Prior knowledge:
This protein has 244 residues and is mostly helical. It has helices at 2-11, 15-88, 91-95, 97-106, 118-125, 135-152, 155-169, 175-182, 192-203, 206-215, 219-243.
Amino acid sequence: MIIQRVAAAVKHHDWSLFLLEVLVVVVGLFIGLQVDDWNESRKDRQREEIYLARIYDELAADIENINYGIEIAENRRDMGQLLIAALADPELAVQDPFAFFSAIEEAAYTFHPLINDFSFQELQFAGEFGIIRDVALRQALTEYYNKIDNEDQWTYLRVHAQNAYNDGKIQVLTLDQQARVVTQDPDAKFTPQETLETLERMRTHPEFVAEIFRASNHYDAIWTYVKWRDAAVQLRDRIGRARD
């Protein structure tokens, strides 16, 4: 209809009508484009909120996992300190034999917190990282996950120390003693004599004693995980403010 009216206006040299019809077309196109842009923007905001909500929840899980990792590392550090102290004071081993044998078994165990980066990776692979409007927030997200990746590469050193410790542990704990510790049997009793004999066996293997100092320290794990936890808390709080 508009094309027919424009054609009629040109045919009759009715330039006022012609300009009016052209103006109607231009305004209609402009409004249509604006509506399309608004719809796309609304969809982007919805996707942004979905991604931020998912990352927020993943960070909450990260914090929980990291806190557990810190707790485990601190517990294993305390076990190592018990073993070192028992070398100087055997009475510490005799006071709580089960704790002493558990420390020999577990002092070098490592626990690596699971870091969830599924939504961040999806944003990148889908080419939608730009839907997050806050440029500073995009930078903070990138820095957080890059930090984890960069420092995660040294995990193999802790695993190597644990393996070396386990190799030495075989020379100190008998299979029966290890089974009693691993099963956490409440009726598993370690006599004072058995405890002192095991402590003496530990003394006769200086390479294992050296591994106690090295593998049960867990300082680097605690230090690393505390940094991860603090970064996750800051990023989660920042996302929370962005969603308000």
